[in-house]
Amino acid sequence: MIDPKRYPRQGLAQLPTPFERLNRLAGRLGAGEIWIKRDDLTGLAFGGNKTRKLEFLIADAKRQGATVIVTAGGMQSNHVRQTAAAAAKLGFACEAVVEDLRPEDATYNESGNALLDRLFGAKLRPIEKGGDVEAALGEAEERLKADGEKPYVIPVGGSNPLGALGYAVAGIELAEQMRAVGADRARIYVATGSGGTQAGLLLGLHAAGMTGVTVEGICVSRDGDAQRALVTELMQETARFLKLDPPPADAVRCDGGFVGPGYGEETDEMKSAVHLLAGTEGVLLDPVYSGKAMAGLLAHVSARKAARDQPVVFLHTGGQPALFAYQGTFAA
Length: 332
Ligand SMILES: *Cc1c(COP(=O)(O)O)cnc(C)c1O
Fold this sequence. Notes:
The protein is an alpha/beta fold. The chain is 43% helix and 16% strand. The chain has twelve helices and ten strands. The chain has helices at residues 23-29, 50-63, 78-90, 106-110, 112-119, 133-146, 161-180, 196-207, 224-242, 268-281, 290-302, 327-330; strands at 19-21, 34-38, 68-74, 93-100, 123-128, 151-153, 187-192, 214-219, 253-255, 312-316. The strands form two sheets. Strands 1-2-10-7-8-9 form a six-stranded mixed β-sheet, with helices on both faces. Strands 5-4-3-6 form a four-stranded parallel β-sheet. The chain starts with 18 loop residues before the first strand and ends with a helix. The mean pLDDT is 96. The structure holds pyridoxal-5'-phosphate. Pyridoxal-5'-phosphate is lined by residues 48-50, 78-79, 157, 159, 191-198, 286, 289-290, 317-319.
């Protein structure tokens, strides 16, 4: 069993997050039960999934006596935004290597998460699209050390075993909520990128004895095979770190059919999903992650891959600030 008390943890998230039924959406689709786990409502600086990982990562930084948190992501990274907020809250400086994915797009570079990062006082270090993020992280770490700082480096997405522990704990929380409503044999949909969310969730659900659930990772940046390899490796590494038995490797399911042209690139299915959830449930999805994950859920439900009598659960991982950076995408 997972004992989160064995690991230092900094309270940052409002937990447990709500677990609610989406009746109007289910009615519109002619589907059975659809539930949503609101990890967009973790609370810190507009919320999102990274806050759960940061509870363990920031506590570790504190324990190590760090002075500055260093991390990386795309210019509209939700992970960078939540990390910058957590750093501000705990009194750390923050530096982020950000990949300049759309150098010509002023809205993209100045609105949404990029705007918020600057409000939290984070220093953004842009690198060119496709640049070497790991090398840039290493350089920042060395430069800060030479300046007499104690940097603590959090990998892209907070996806290492300590970060994934945040999602193992979330899996246990979700298992309890699913059992309470008799939805313990559900098919769970979640966006999967750097992999820590899916890897941790699988471990937590397994540790909670949820043998009847299926987790469908909907890829946002890789094809299904590459994503499955990434998540499987992180899941196994995290299981060793937590001294747990991992679920069987075939529990790792990743559908690469909804990425579209690439990470952060819009698709028609994503746009329809964002409009549908806003218009039927008053729920905001985001263009990069949860919009594509919902597009996957909708396609599976309509293809009846998710049989009508099997409940469906959508894990909403947040990301809404990016909507403002994509205003052209959603302008009528
Ligand atoms: C980072 C992120 C994800 C993906 O989580 P990973 O742990 O990186 O796979 C999903 N949704 C949103 C909104 C995110 O910011």
